[in-house]
Amino acid sequence: CFLLAPDLYPGDPCKTGTGPKGSRGTSCPAGEPEPGAPLLSCQPRQHLVFLKTHKTASSTLVNILHRFGDTRSLRFALPAGYQFNYPKLFQARRVKGWHPEGPPFDILCHHMRFNLPEVGGRGPRHFYFSIVRDPASLAESAFSYYRGVVPAFRRARSLSEFLASPQNFYRPGERGSHYARNLLWFDFGLDPPASPGLAAIHAALLGLDRIFHLVLLTEYMDESLVLLRDALCWSFRDVVAFQHNLRNPEAVHQLGPIDAAQLRAWNHLDWHLYTHFNRTFWTRVKRFGTARMAGEMAVLRKQRAEFTRRCLQGGGPLEPGHIADERIRPFQFGQVPILGYALQPSLASGLQVVCQQMVTPELQYKDLLDANFTYRIINCNK
Fold it and tell me: Where does the secretion signal sit in this chain (predicted)?
């Protein structure tokens, strides 16, 4: 074998409940089939490219992908650290253990600046998707999160001062400047248009349409998860999730209409990108069916409420100081605490595995996947 043995678990993990050292276990279905379970007419898609954009609730989606791939022994394309040499364009050689003649990956989902030729082209094997957010709320979040490391944000005493004249604080090409303006456009691998006018912008967006099968909306996460579940032929249990990388709502700067308009104007390329994918999203919802969407969202919310009740101590997200277990305490970055979750004590073993997967933050889960990667390399070489 080369790098990743296709059969990670010996036997059926749903029966044995065992796996190699570092495995997160499995979230095996139990009891009656859930409503809306995949029909036999389609096969669950397992070859996925997720462009993880910044400050868009993308960490919640990565948790879903981590769990799905981990429990099915799928091959993750992993970075050496936690990002693929970001903010440089993605390069295949940055994938841990990459070799031009090695086996293809199943899931690519960690931070990168998108670069289609290096990702692997757009063939029928992989499903490409991403998520976008209103540039106004995205910029507010970025200002809060990255203020300590982005010079354009550090120079301003407040978001209001930055908004009053962002050009006085922003230096194009300065280290970290991509966080301060048109961050979505940058993450999608696009450069600022060389010529003025809308033609170049529209051409770039049409190019993205030809690559991405689905682009989700942060503001409509439940609708997004329903569409994703349908597109991938997955179960509800596969897409039910808790929010990750979440700030305390009290720390969120509430934007008025004028502030929001100013942020959208400053991030005008992101605004074009967002409105474009907003239209394609709602076109897809309409095609999916309003009544069907309402029904599936109700199932999704019911399952999330049940997992919340059974898994979470305190019934929801907690400040990091209230999370004793460092394996599930989120990494803290920026000036505002990042919330996480604590598990109910004395969970049954099967439920313990599922709940722990659902609350494990992105960085810790990636470390666990790394441990599995190393395990497979060692056993490959025996």
Answer: none
| pLDDT of 185 higher than 90 | yes
CA diameter of the chain = 64
Is 34 domain-assigned?
A: no
Count: domains in the chain: 1
Asked whether residue 183 is assigned to any structural domain, the reply reads yes
CATH number of residue 57's parent domain: 3.40.50
Q: pLDDT tens-digit profile of 55-88? A: 999 999 999 999 999 999 999 999 999 999 999 9
| Alpha-carbon distance values, 248 to 136, 199, 215, 243, 313 (Å) | 18, 40, 26, 12, 17
pTM beyond 0.85: yes
pLDDT in tens, 114-125: 999 999 876 668
Q: Is 136 exposed, middle or buried (0-12, 13-18, 19+ CB in 10 A)?
A: buried
d(CA 122, CA 125): 8
Identify whether the C-beta of residue 350 lies closer than 8 Å to the C-beta of residue 28: yes
- Which residues lie closer than 8 Å to 375 by C-beta, 6 or more apart? 20, 21, 22
Residue 287 Cα distances to 220, 233, 282, angstroms: 16, 17, 8
> Which structural domain, as residue segments, surrounds residue 134?
48-381
What's the CA dihedral at 95, 99, 101, 103 to 10 degrees? -40
Q: With 70 as the cut, is the pLDDT of residue 373 above it?
A: no
Contact assessment for residue 193 and residue 273, using Cβ atoms and an 8 Å cutoff: no
Does the residue 341 lie in any domain?
yes
